[in-house]
Amino acid sequence: MKYYVVSDVHGFYDQTVRALAEKGYFDDPLPHKLIICGDLFDRGPQSREMQQFVAELVKKDAVILIRGNHEDLMEELVEKLPELTETDLYHSHYNANKTVHTLRDLTGCTVTKMIISPEQVATRMRNTDFYKRILPAMRNYYETERYIFVHGWIPSVTSGPVGNFDSYKYMPGWRHADEAAWYRSRWYNGMLAAHQGVTEPGKTIVCGHWHACFGHSQYEGKSGEDCSPYYAEGIIAIDGYTAYSRQVNCIVLEDEDLAANR
Asked: Which residues does residue 2 pair with via DSSP β-bridges, in sequence order?
């Protein structure tokens, strides 16, 4: 099977389509699937276009969706919406991460509406294709014969604050980790983890979440402007820092599917 892989597209629909087109995705006559390693929305201006594009792929069973930390943020925001004040909405990490903007874009509701009628806005969000089709199709990871696809990294033993972990150790049995461990893993810096020895023998882990420019700068001494995919032992990091670079990284891999996925 041929896999076209992107991550952290963050509502930049035009850039995503352009990256896929450049790799030949739309013209490929052979069996292939798109893999998106999380973070479909927040940051970019085309949430509705991205939602429609991905929802159609889900209907056709033509996409593998990995859950990202921004999907977690949206579910948290919708659940907490009735409790949030105007100050919360404008100054919380949900606003800083642009999750409030995505909620507005996908529901057509203003922030004022979120404050006055939070239950109505939450219900409207739960009736979107994002909630009804896309979220249920998401998984923590996907594995083929030679690759593992995740958002941040595989669950690990960590130290340091959430979102800025400073040390990682391999967690045996990570495939069966609980949801709390997978939630934390979506915030991991996979490049840092890989260079601390947290890799899976015989596999390459493909991840997003942290900008690939971190790897180029930290481990190759390159300029922080290089947002191309970062390759090292056991890892391919593909977050192209799209909000800054206006580029989506797309890699193409060919591999055998596993019976466990079927």
From this structure: 32, 254
| Architecture (CATH level 2) of domain 2-70+136-261 | 4-Layer Sandwich (3.60)
Round to whole Å and give the CA distance between 163 and 166. Answer: 10
C-alpha to C-alpha distances, 202 to 16, 177, 193, nearest whole angstrom: 30, 20, 17
- Domain edges within the chain: 2-70+136-261
H helices within the chain, ranges in order? Answer: 13-22, 47-59, 69-80, 86-91, 93-96, 99-107, 111-116, 118-126, 129, 135-137, 179-185, 190-195, 212-220, 242-245
Q: Are 121 and 81 in contact (CB under 8 A)?
A: yes
pLDDT at residue 262 is higher than 70? no
| CA 43 to chain centroid | 13
Residues 17-37 have pLDDT tens digits of: 999 999 999 999 999 999 999
Structure confidence by residue, pLDDT tens digits, 184-228: 999 999 999 999 999 999 999 999 999 999 999 999 988 778 999
Task: Read off the pLDDT of each residue in 120-149 and give the average, rounded to a whole number.
Answer: 98
CB 187 within 8 A of CB 227: no
